[in-house]
Amino acid sequence: MNEFYDSLLQQERASVQDVALKYGRTLNPYYEFLLSEKAVSASPYYVGLSSDMGSFTHVTKRVVLVADTILMSDHGVGAVHELGEHEQYISTPHPDNPQLSLTDRKTWRYGMVTNDLAELGQWLLDAEPLLRSGLVWYGPVFTTGESGGTIGMRTMPTGPLPSFSDRSIDFVVEHGRAVDLARAKPLASRVVRPILEIDLPFINGLSLSDFAQVTSEEFDSYRQYRDFMRSRLLELDDALEAVDSQVALERVAHSIRDELNTATAEMSRAAQSQALNRCGAVLGTTSAVLAAVRPDALQGALTTSATIAASVTGLWPTIQAFADIKSKRTHGKWHYVWVLQKKAAR
């Protein structure tokens, strides 16, 4: 997807409709290849979801937390938005002289079907970091019709428009729930279906663009959290339709929230223990050099150095960078969630 985003001009980004149309044109030549790659993928967590465009943000932010790759498609039948033309040359025997042939040029017009072109374009811009990293891609619903030829104008009667590519979609999402189309991989079904129903406050108030940015920037920590979420959801009973399924879901959600609160409290205590925010606390030049050259020794420097009257304006970013690195190393998967939570709280 880097090719598509790198080719977007600034004026094209200003029009979300143009973004959606250009995506369709860019993807069309590779579409069959991408679908075949999904079909042969060995990953149990490469999933295809068809969702109403209005719930794309909700679905994307949640399923990314458990899936390796997501193919998104919208299943609301809408208007056909023309993308371009393909030409095909066909030779047929001359009716009066079999030694000769007639060459007919057929023009095929192709387009994509979607309910809301503007909303699709906005989603493509907001989710850019996710598409660039290969975590998500959008599969347009393409449709083709013959528009004419050199021997004469021909038309093809239009049949029912496709609602999604049934070769690639594993789940249809309706009213916030995923309906399994029976060919989904068992492991994917056990994590995709419950993740859409679990309450996750740290992403509820977060925009898709912020979510995508954090996920891309904190990728290592994100992968650790993704593995954690999978392991927790796989603990659920197989029968998610059982009467007590909501109890099991809430039990998992409560456990996740409890661990998140504990990890957040630990990170806050760690930040306070470094005494970096104490009024009037400053470090001398020696400590500044130590922090820049050997960040791992900074903590020792803080505990042994006396308060020295010196300017620390240039040192603070170095100290803060070290504190961030320390949080990542110490808390792993929870650092990713912590950053999401801070973004949502803004």
Furnish the topology, listing elements before pairings.
Elements: H1 2-7, H2 10-13, H3 16-27, H4 31-40, E1 46-51, H5 56-63, E2 69-74, E3 79-93, E4 101-114, H6 117-126, H7 128-132, E5 136-138, E6 141-149, E7 171-174, E8 177-180, H8 186-195, H9 201-204, H10 208-217, H11 219-233, H12 245-273, H13 285-293, H14 298-304, H15 316-331, H16 333-344
Parallel strand pairs: 1-2, 1-7, 2-5
Antiparallel strand pairs: 3-4, 4-6, 7-8
Keywords:
346 residues, alpha/beta, 5-stranded mixed sheet, 48% helix, 18% strand, elongated
Q: What would you say this structure looks like, in words?
A:
The protein is α/β, with parallel strands linked by helices and 346 residues long. It has helices spanning 2-7, 10-13, 16-27, 31-40, 56-63, 117-126, 128-132, 186-195, 201-204, 208-217, 219-233, 245-273, 285-293, 298-304, 316-331, 333-344, and strands at 46-51, 69-74, 79-93, 101-114, 136-138, 141-149, 171-174, 177-180. Strands 5-2-1-7-8 form a five-stranded mixed sheet. Strands 3-4-6 form a three-stranded antiparallel sheet. A hairpin with a 7-residue loop joins strand 3 (79-93) and strand 4 (101-114). Mean pLDDT is 76; it is low at 148-158, 274-286 and 303-314.
* Largest sheet strand order: 5-2-1-7-8
Q: In percent, how much strand structure appears in the residues?
A: 15-25%
Question: Which regions have little confidence, pLDDT < 50, spanning 5+ residues?
Answer: 148-158, 274-286, 303-314
Strand count, sense and barrel status of the largest sheet are:
5 strands, mixed
Discrete helix count:
16
Shape: elongated
Based on the structure, what is the oligomeric state of the protein chains? Answer: single chain
Mean pLDDT, to the nearest integer, reads: 76
For the record, give the distance between the C-alpha atoms at the N and C termini, rounded to a whole number.
30 Å
Count of individual beta strands: 8
**Roughly how many Å is the radius of gyration?**
27 Å
Structural class: alpha/beta
Order of helices and strands, N to C? HHHHEHEEEHHEEEEHHHHHHHHH
| Approximate helicity band | 40-55%
